[in-house]
Write a structure and sequence with these properties.
By secondary structure, this protein is of the alpha+beta class. About 50% of the residues lie in helices and about 25% in strands. The strands form two sheets. The chain has a seven-stranded mixed beta sheet, sandwiched between helices. Strands 1-2 form a two-stranded antiparallel sheet. Helix 3 crosses helix 4. The protein is elongated. About 20% of the residues are buried. Pfam families: Acetyltransf_1, MarR_2. One of its GO terms (molecular function) is DNA binding.
Length: about 300
């Protein structure tokens, strides 16, 4: 199965579970006389002031004929009235009658009970995960702008997240052992304990409030030499410019702080990172085979004169 086929199967599986658990496959919604689409039309009518049929149709992406049948049914049941629009002679303004309002409130109450019972059936940890996922789904589907990578300063919890994510990713992608996790934990502990704003800095790349990657600028072992450390980008954020933004920002900051040279260590396996360093002006100045992180790796030092 290709990745695309797997992604499609995952979303379809979610749809099947979701519609079943919320009772959306039943002929009538929450023991009401309404289908799901009719209930959604009723909801829109209750939450809009003098809407037109076209406005409701656009909001719900409903077929004009289907919507027309639903509105006629509501009018026949005494739930809905319409009147001419003084500003547009051909438009009809819709409004729920008092009976229509009462009907909507009864349906709303029944839906809240059904949803509340579903949430109550889940243990608290699963309930919280469900609600977090639901919020994320709403944000993703309602987002109008394309994803945008931005940078921010460190916040509490970031160092732990970086240690965990890099340890997991490098183990999965390159087979690094737990020694790498111990190393980056010590690097970041030292960064935090000995931070000097005149010589050190750090940035978190984020997209839609999700961590996309990070980079650190730290003082080197020799005067005038800084180190670029712990660059990484989350797999699903790669190709969006996060890596270039992080490296360029680190280089600019090193230059602003008066460093004359910036160095970094990398592994010859990290092909994408090495291409990024080369595009940013870094050159390999040292290479040797070493035993690190449970394996033999091509240990490399790259440098950029500022």
């Amino acid at each position: 199965m290709t990745q695309r086929e797997n992604d499609i199967a995952t979303l379809r599986a979610f749809n099947r579970v979701y519609t079943l658990r919320l009772g959306l496959l039943q002929a009538k919604l929450d023991k009401s006389p309404f289908t799901l689409s009719e209930a959604r039309v009723l909801y829109e009518l209750a939450h809009r002031t003098d809407p037109t049929a076209a406005e409701i149709g656009r909001a719900l992406l409903l077929d004009r004929a289907q919507l027309s049948r639903t509105l006629k049914r509501f009018m026949a049941a005494g739930l809905l009235t319409s009147r001419g629009d003084p500003a547009h002679g051909r438009h009809r303004l819709l409004a729920l009658t008092p009976e229509g309002r009462a009907t909507f409130q009864a349906l709303e109450a029944a839906t809240c009970v059904t949803t509340g019972n579903l949430l109550a059936s889940l243990p608290l940890p699963r309930r919280n995960r469900l609600l977090t996922a639901a919020k994320e789904i709403v944000v993703l589907f309602q987002a109008e702008a394309a994803p945008h990578i931005a940078l921010r300063a460190l916040q509490p919890g970031d160092l732990g997240m970086i240690i965990a994510r890099q340890a997991i990713l490098y183990a999965c992608e390159y087979g690094y052992s737990g020694d790498y996790e111990a190393l980056i934990a010590s690097i970041l502990a030292n960064f935090h304990q000995n931070f000097d704003p005149a010589r050190d800095d750090a940035w978190i790349a984020h997209c839609d409030d999700t961590m996309a990657g990070s980079i650190f600028l730290v003082r080197g072992d020799r005067p005038g030499v800084g180190k670029l450390r712990l660059l990484y980008v989350e797999p699903d954020m790669r190709g969006m410019g996060a890596g270039s933004l992080l490296v360029d920002t680190c280089v600019s900051r090193a230059r602003a702080l008066g460093y004359g040279r910036l160095e970094l260590w990398t592994d010859s396996q990290l092909l994408s990172a090495r291409r990024l360093y080369a595009r940013s002006g870094f050159a390999q100045v040292e290479a040797r085979q070493e035993h690190y992180f449970g394996q033999e790796i091509g240990s490399e030092i790259w440098a950029l004169d500022l």
